[in-house]
Design a protein that fits this description.
The chain is mainly β and 408 residues long. The protein is built from four helices and 35 strands. It is elongated and about 70 Å long. 50% of the residues are buried. About 3% of the residues have low confidence.
Length: 408
C-alpha cells in the first residue's frame, strides 16, 4: 500500500464511530502520499508522520474537520520545502478542530503553515524555519492563523520569517505560550484580533520582539483585550530584512514591544532588555498615503504597563527608521525604556483624554519614559516632550484571562 492504515476505535458521538491512524513514512512520493491522506481523511482521523526528512515540492492542504497531524518531534520529523515549485504556503488549513503537533516545516516558498477561517486549531511543538538565516527572500510567516477562533500555539519555534514568525490576525480567543521566536522581522505579532494571551514566550534576535498591531482596511478592526506577560523579550537587534513595502519594514531594529492603535492591552511581568532602540513603544497608526477608513480608529487607548523588569536599551538606535530617528532627536540621544508618541484625536489633545482611556504605568522599577507633546512638536514650541510618568501612575484594572474550551 502507498500509505499504511491502522484502524482504531474511538468514542466520539456514538459507539459506532471509527477513526483511522494513517501512517505516512518518508519516500520519493511523500508529497503525493501526504496530500492523499489529507484528502481521504475523515473526521477524527490522525495522520501520523514518522522519523525522517520529507522532501516536498508542492503545497499541501487540509479541509477536513477534526483531523490531527502528528510527527515524532520537530527535530525528528521534518517537511523540507527547499525545492518547492508550486503553492503559496507549505501547509494550508481551512477546516475546524485541527491539531498539528511534533513536526517541522522548513524553507517554504511562502508562508510555512497558514490557517484561514479555522475554529479550534492547535499548534503544538511545531517548528517553522528558513535555514539560510534572515533574508528578504524567506517566506513572510511561520505560523499564520487568520480569521480564526480558539487558536492555541504552545511550545512552538519560529525562525527566519521575513514578516512574523508567529502571527495571529483578525482572530478571536488566542493563546500563544511557551514558544520561541528568533531571527524574524517580528517575533510574535497579534494583529486586528480580540482576546489574546501572549505568555511565557521567548522573543529574541528578531528586529522587533512582540508586536500588537491594528491596521485599517481589513475585515476585522479594533483589536482589543491583549495580555502580554511572563515573556523574555531580549536582544532583538537583527537588521530589518522585510521586503520593500511591507508594514513591518518600518519597525526599527532593536525594539522590544510595539503597541499600535490597539485598546485594552496589558503588558506585565515581562523581562525586557538589551534592545538597541527601545524596550516598549506605544504608537498611533499614520500613513499619509493611506486613504481614510471611517471604520478605523488609529490611536491606542487603555494601555497598561506594569510590573515589568527592564534592562539596557537605546544603546544602538536604528535612526534610519522614522520612529527611532525622531525619538533620538527629541531625546537628544537619551532614549527611554517606554515611549508614547502622544498622538490622539485633535479634540483630546486639546481637552484631554477620557480617564478610562489613559495610559497606566506602574511598578516598572527604574524604567525611563518619554511622551511627545504633538501640538508643541508640530508648532515648533519649546518643551515638545514629557518625561514625567507620575501622571500615568493609576490603578491597574487587570484584564481577564483568555479561555479556550473552558480552560486557560
Amino acid at each position: 500500500m502507498r500509505i499504511l492504515l491502522i484502524i482504531g476505535l474511538f468514542l466520539f458521538n456514538s459507539f459506532d464511530a471509527v477513526s483511522k491512524v494513517i501512517i505516512v513514512p518518508p519516500s520519493e512520493n511523500a508529497q503525493e502520499q501526504i496530500q492523499e491522506a489529507m484528502i481521504l481523511a475523515e473526521s477524527g482521523d490522525e495522520i501520523q508522520l514518522t522519523n525522517g526528512v520529507y522532501q516536498i515540492e508542492d503545497g499541501l492542504s487540509l479541509d477536513i474537520d477534526n483531523v490531527t497531524i502528528t510527527g515524532s518531534g520537530h527535530q525528528n520529523t521534518v517537511l523540507d520545502f527547499s525545492n518547492q515549485m508550486t503553492g503559496a504556503q507549505g501547509l494550508m488549513i481551512t477546516s475546524d478542530g485541527i491539531t498539528l503537533k511534533d513536526f517541522a516545516i522548513i524553507n517554504t516558498k511562502g508562508d510555512a503553515i497558514k490557517a484561514k477561517g479555522s475554529d479550534d486549531i492547535s499548534f503544538l511543538n511545531i517548528r517553522t524555519e528558513w535555514t539560510n538565516g534572515p533574508n528578504a527572500s524567506n517566506g513572510a510567516y511561520g505560523l499564520y492563523p487568520v480569521e480564526s477562533k480558539n487558536v492555541l500555539i504552545d511550545g512552538c519555534i519560529a525562525i527566519g520569517a521575513s514578516d512574523a514568525g508567529i502571527y495571529v490576525g483578525q482572530s478571536e480567543n488566542i493563546i500563544v505560550k511557551n514558544s520561541v521566536a528568533e531571527y524574524n522581522v517580528a517575533g510574535i505579532e497579534i494583529e486586528n484580533s480580540y482576546f489574546a494571551d501572549v505568555k511565557n514566550n521567548i522573543a529574541r534576535y528578531n528586529t522587533g520582539g512582540i508586536l500588537v498591531f491594528d491596521l485599517p482596511d481589513l475585515p476585522q478592526q479594533g483589536g482589543h483585550h491583549v495580555r502580554v506577560f511572563d515573556n523574555l523579550i531580549t536582544d532583538n537587534n537583527t537588521d530589518n530584512f522585510a521586503p520593500e513595502g511591507n508594514i513591518v519594514g518600518e519597525v526599527p531594529r532593536g525594539t522590544g514591544i510595539i503597541i499600535m492603535a490597539n485598546s485594552d492591552v496589558e503588558v506585565f511581568n515581562n523581562d525586557i532588555s538589551d534592545n538597541g532602540t527601545l524596550n516598549i513603544a506605544i504608537v498611533s497608526y499614520s500613513d499619509p498615503n493611506q486613504e481614510s477608513d471611517e471604520n478605523y480608529y488609529p490611536y491606542p487607548k487603555s494601555i497598561q504597563i506594569h510590573g515589568n523588569r527592564f534592562g539596557a536599551s537605546g544603546f544602538n538606535p536604528d535612526t534610519d527608521k522614522e520612529l527611532a530617528g525622531i525619538l533620538y532627536e527629541l531625546s537628544e540621544g537619551n532614549m527611554p525604556d517606554i515611549f508614547w508618541d502622544g498622538v490622539l484625536p485633535i479634540s483630546q489633545m486639546i481637552l484631554g483624554q477620557p480617564e478610562d482611556e489613559k495610559i497606566r504605568l506602574k511598578n516598572n522599577g527604574e524604567a525611563s519614559f518619554l511622551a511627545i507633546r504633538p501640538l508643541r512638536y508640530l508648532l515648533s514650541f519649546p518643551n515638545p516632550i514629557d518625561r514625567d510618568q507620575s501622571q500615568y501612575s493609576r490603578k491597574i484594572e487587570s484584564l481577564k484571562p483568555v479561555l479556550i474550551n473552558s480552560s486557560e
